[in-house]
Write a structure and sequence with these properties.
With 230 residues, the protein is an all-alpha fold. The chain is built from 9 helices and no strands. Helix content is 52%, strand content 0%. The longest helix is centred in the N-terminal third of the chain and has 23 residues, at 8-30. It is globular, with a radius of gyration of 17 Å.
Length: 230
């Protein structure tokens, strides 16, 4: 049994690869290049689904760089490689769903002076100085998902809300967190990161971002606060 946490260098490698590939697709999509538009349409069908169920995407999500071994990168173990591939696939498909029909970039690297990641993005869905409980509950449910597949499905619901409000997300960071999630102690680490960014004072809403109406939910699970969940 693997008991070590996610190796930090591999986490960074996953983040860089996801950011580079998604940025390339995004640039092409926003420029209305047919190949990028077609790639996005294929990718978004995989959002919230297991990579093994989507062989059509295996040739689209380029995991080749993960296999490289050179002066900058060591060879990854089979466990590292599988978890990195799954994280890259999940982040890419969620971005495609997020970017669909949007005229501005939905993958956006965070600025150092701003709270980063999913928690901060979800907080920007809410009115200033107020908490939208149905939206917060969605983040809590994602943070307490029992499996990577369930996590991807719950993230899909959140991404739909972010798309509706034109709120971008750093998908390089998300890919790194999806990779870390799969290791012992990883869910707790990621929950802490999401909770910290959620509770950090958000930046002012950017032009073009819309606040969606409160989201109805049928969730009957207890809405444990993110800080308690971590």
């Amino acid at each position: 049994m693997t008991t070590a946490p996610a190796p930090p260098p591999v986490r960074s490698r996953v983040a860089d690869l996801a950011a580079a590939q998604i940025a390339s697709w995004q640039q092409g999509y926003l420029a209305d290049h047919s190949a990028a538009v077609a790639a996005l349409a294929r990718l978004r069908r995989g959002a919230g689904r297991n990579a093994a169920e989507m062989p059509d995407l295996w040739s689209l999500v380029d995991t080749g760089p993960l296999h490289e071994r050179n002066s900058a990168y060591r060879a990854l173990s089979e466990v590292e490689l599988t978890r990195a591939e799954d994280a890259l696939y999940t982040a890419s498909t969620l971005w495609a769903l997020h970017q669909q029909s949007r005229a501005t970039a939905m993958h956006r690297a965070h600025r150092p002076e701003q709270p980063a990641g999913l928690g901060a993005a979800v907080r920007r869905l809410m009115p200033p100085n107020d908490i939208d409980e149905p939206v917060r509950r969605r983040l809590v449910r994602a943070a307490t998902a029992a499996t990577p597949l369930l996590l991807a499905q719950r993230l899909r619901d959140i991404v739909v809300l972010l798309r509706r409000a034109d709120i971008p997300l750093d998908y390089g960071l998300l890919a790194a967190q999806l990779y870390a999630w799969q290791w012992p102690g990883g869910p707790e680490t990621v929950r802490r990161e999401w909770g910290r960014s959620f509770h950090t004072r958000p930046a002012a809403r950017q032009p073009g971002e819309n606040t969606p109406p409160p989201t109805a939910t049928t969730d009957t699970e207890s809405a444990t606060d993110l800080k308690d969940a971590s």
